[in-house]
Amino acid sequence: MTSRRKGNNHFMKILTPREIVSELDKYIIGQAHAKRSVAIALRNRWRRQQVPPDLRDEIAPKNIIMMGPTGVGKTEIARRLARLAESPFLKVEATKFTEVGYVGRDVESMIRDLTELAVSMAKKKEQENVKVKAHELAEERLLDILLPKRREDSREEEGGSEKEKVLEVVKAEKPESKSTREKLRRLLRDGKLNARNVEIETTNQNIPMVEVFSNTGMEEIEFNIREVFGNVFPSKKKRRLVKIPEALEILFQEESQRLIDMDSVIDEAVRMTEQNGIIFLDELDKIAGNESRHGPDVSREGVQRDLLPIVEGSTVTTKYGMVKTDHILFIAAGAFNASKPSDLLPELQGRFPIRVELDSLTQEDFLRILSEPKNALITQYKALLETEGIDLQFEKSAIEEIASMASKVNERMENIGARRLHTVMEKLLDEISFDAPDMSTEKVIIDKKYVLKKLTDILEDENLSRYIL
Q1: Tens of pLDDT along 152-188?
Q2: Which residue among 291, 293, 416, 434 is least enclosed by CB atoms within 10 Å?
């Protein structure tokens, strides 16, 4: 196995499909079938990296279509999956795109956006690698400002690069100067200089505002014009008076930028995009063809035709070079209540071999969603009010009543799944959230009686519940 292959998808090496499902269970209630399918798709990526190179490029990703009503966990499954794999992840709505020749976003723009995300991830990772050295250099620069060098010391250091000057400054100093510098260093590290102000020089790029109104496929022109102007217009130096901690952070960012090799960052970002990228294509059902549709809807089939080469595998031009889409994992989703996957172009259907139907959420699911996941709604509200010094507690009967009411509202009106819990909880805790800073009590208990008092009237009035819940 090559070193490059060893470095790929290290997290997936540890997690088996069963373990991936277990991780997803910590945040998403139910939908076992969908979790199982995405776990297999993710593990298959690692498996593909282990096969011989001549066969590796022939193995296509197992793209997925998730079908189910809104609010049942489709987006959350895809987002959590990307976090597990530490992959670039982009969520886009299929309805944002239009057929080439119409005004709107070009389908290729999602690959450019995904590459941008990958560059940010690779840059952040590289910044972590140079963090220690960047802190050392930033500290030396700050000490130079706090304790300016003598003229003879400056003359000795002329001719070297700026980084060499910073690193050699300690060697060039006289014993008494070195002693003072080390004292300042200790004070700086102990935080005893944090209240002090210091004047530093920062660089601002004077680039005029450029706004481009263009047709499809021209999204990048604004960035290219900005890059051209960036080379034409000189950088402007600006002196700022800031506190020591802020000055250290500014200098750290500057040193990090200098130490990072952007060429290797871009190479890694393109590799991440091509091999690990995940695109969540929402509202796919809205562009599905249907014989009864006429007029403006006719362009929807055009969007499918434009999507097809991207999903099949093509090469897209980005500002960072050419990016191949052959092994990007596409997870599509939609309610498919007015259409069905068979309404898609046959070629596009064939590129999504895995079909998963997600279940509507029941009252029991709502009960679990409120309290079981790591990011459970009740846990979130308790943490928010804890910042005001309030211990918010929910009795079991109250949680059951909230779940029951959310389920009833979904049955009577449009079913928006778990999102209904957010509207119910907001209305329930509206008064407490508003009065929290002025409340004298430290403990607030939410029981069934309180839930009924706050929500029963709204639930019984159908017109009122349509607007509020």
Answers
A1: 455 555 555 444 544 444 444 455 556 888 888 888 8
A2: 291
Residues of the chain with CATH 3.40.50.300: 3-121+267-357
- Cα angle: 230, vertex 235, 236; to 5 degrees: 140
The per-residue b/e assignment along 102-122, b for 16 or more CB within 10 angstroms, e otherwise, is: eebbbbbbbbbbbbbbbbebb
Residue 100: count of CB within 10 angstroms of its CB: 17
Nearest residue to 313 via CA among 322, 304, 330, 326: 326
Q: Which residues, 6+ apart, have CB-to-CB distance to 192 below 8 Å?
A: none
Tell me how far apart the alpha carbons of residues 19 and 16 are, in angstroms, rounded to a whole number: 5
The pTM of this model reads 0.78
Residue tagged 């890694």 (tokens): 268
**Is 198 strand, coil or helix?**
strand
Question: 409 forms bridges with which residues in the sheet?
Answer: none
| Cα–Cα distance list, 96 to 41, 209, 300 (Å) | 26, 26, 11
Give me the CATH topology for the region 3-121+267-357: Rossmann fold (3.40.50)
Q: d(Cα 52, Cα 90) in Å, to the nearest integer?
A: 29
pLDDT digits (tens, 9 = 90+) for 313-359: 999 999 999 999 999 999 999 988 888 888 888 999 999 999 999 98
- Contacts of 70 by beta carbon, 8 Å cutoff, 6+ apart: 335, 415, 416, 417, 419
Contact indicator for 140, 169 with CB cutoff of 8 Å: yes
pLDDT digits (tens, 9 = 90+) for 29-61: 989 999 999 999 989 988 988 899 889 888 988
Task: Give the pairing type, strands 321-324 and 315-318.
Answer: antiparallel
